[in-house]
Amino acid sequence: MAEEHEIRDQLLSRIVRGLVNRCTDGVILANSDLDRRGVRQEGRLWRALYPIRQKQKTGEG
Fold it and tell me: How far apart (Å, rounded) are the C-alpha atoms in residues 23 and 8?
């Protein structure tokens, strides 16, 4: 089951990177640490964006 989730996360990450690469004017990411109930948000999509966020922090992107 964990391996299946890992594969899904990798596929989601590839899809997100492919879509981001098509954006000529850039992408604006907005984040809220907590949802409306006060629970920390850390979903699959946010994890899929992790490589892109890291590039941005290091000045590569």
Answer: 23
